[in-house]
Amino acid sequence: MKEEIKRLTLPRICAHPDAPNGCGKIIRAHTIQMRGGLSALAEADHVMELLLDDGVLHKVPKGIRVASTFEGFCKAHDGTLFAPVETRQRHIDLIALYLFAFRALAYSRHRKAIALERVARYRRLDAGFPLWAQARFQRRILAMQVGSTRSAADLAAMKNRLDRMYRSGNYSGFHAAGWLFSELLPLAYSGAFYPEYDFRGVPLQRLGHGDASFEILCATLTPWNGMTLLVLAWIGEPDGPAERYVRSFQALADDQKANAAMHAGFEDQENLIMRPSWWNNLPTAAREALEAMRMAGTEAGSNKTPRDLNNAQPTLSAAAVKAIYHFSGANPESG
Ligand SMILES: [Zn+2]
User: Fold this and answer.
1) Separation of 15 CA from ligand 1 center, angstroms?
2) Ligand 1 center from residue 21 Cα (angstroms)
């Protein structure tokens, strides 16, 4: 049963806002584009993937054709939807940042759907245990199931809103910020997460308490024209957790931002792609610290503790900020 759970990769459905209309075959869609993205980090056509799967941290060299992929889009829609950020004349505007956010959200929603399926199967793993052990096991699994169900529902709700924006062309309520760093960072990521603490370690929202809706941030760190672009995007209340998270990043000194963005990846992102020699040449202590950061807050790691990411150690980058972008969607009918 454990093997069966590990192999579970459902669901294989296309995340395009129009799906299933116009869908083709489901493919392994990249969360970081291959050409100019993964290829910029690759050595001998391979990148290093740091993927936490089922409580185990996997560090695997992956060919750029399969690295960072998930079976979440069909071939037809993956090509057309992301063309504005993957073809040659691309530029950074509201739609470009929306597309990065959409892909990050689609990835996390897909991963959460798998997690939810797995947890449902875990509930049968205690068959044959003594009654006291079954009770303890079921209590633990139930907590996981409640958490996964909640975040799957929040991700689905945000996906519905982004779908409606795309279909109507009305992006009001969508907010995005981007920072272009002056050099290529050795790290990339794409995913959606609940911001629990801001960049200075200030609490933003307490998960697992009460019924208030939690805000989600979509984050993407990707090579962009030989440099690296960070995109943070959200739908939320003015002065809400997501907006305050972004503001705390903006408030960091410019020479701290790339370093903080890299640390934030190890804190919050499930889908981390690295240049292999960068990772392999890090001092052992630094590598272990980053792995522990990645594991914190998961079933198999220590508790997550708030950290001040200003001047975060180990120092991973001192890249400067070359450009800053802010977009908020407007209702086209309001002019
Ligand atoms: Zn499709």
Assistant:
1) 7
2) 7
Cβ atoms of 29 and 131 within 8 Å: the answer is: no
Taking the C-alpha atoms of residue 155 and residue 216, their distance in angstroms, rounded to an integer, is 8
- Cα(319)–Cα(182) distance, integer angstroms: 6
- H/E stretch holding 267 reads helix 254-268
User: Which of the listed ranges 71-75, 90-94, 141-145 does the model predict with the highest average pLDDT?
Assistant: 71-75
> Which of residues 210 and 238 earns the better pLDDT score?
238
| The Cα angle at residue 296 between residues 290 and 300, in degrees rounded to 5 | 115
Cα(80) to centroid of ligand 1, in Å? 10
Q: Model confidence at 252, in pLDDT bands (50, 70, 90)?
A: very high
Question: 308 C-alpha vs ligand 1 centroid, how far in Å?
Answer: 41
* φ, ψ of residue 57 in degrees (nearest 5): -90, 115
Task: Give 26's strand partners.
Answer: 74
Distance 220 CA to ligand 1 centre (A): 22
Query: Peptide bond before 306: cis, by omega within 30 degrees of 0?
Result: no
Q: Give residue 163 CA to ligand 1 midpoint distance, Å.
A: 13
How many Å lie between the centroid of ligand 1 and the Cα of residue 107?
14
Cα 167 to ligand 1 centre (Å): 14
| Dihedral sign of CA atoms 256, 180, 187, 247 in order | positive
Residues 6+ apart with CB under 8 A from 287: 279
0.90 exceeded by the pTM?
A: yes
Cα 101 to Cα 82: distance, rounded to the nearest angstrom: 11
76 Cα to the center of ligand 1, angstroms? 6
What per-residue confidence (pLDDT) applies to 254?
A: 96
Mean pLDDT, all residues of the chain: 91
Given a cut of 90, is residue 40 above it in pLDDT?
yes
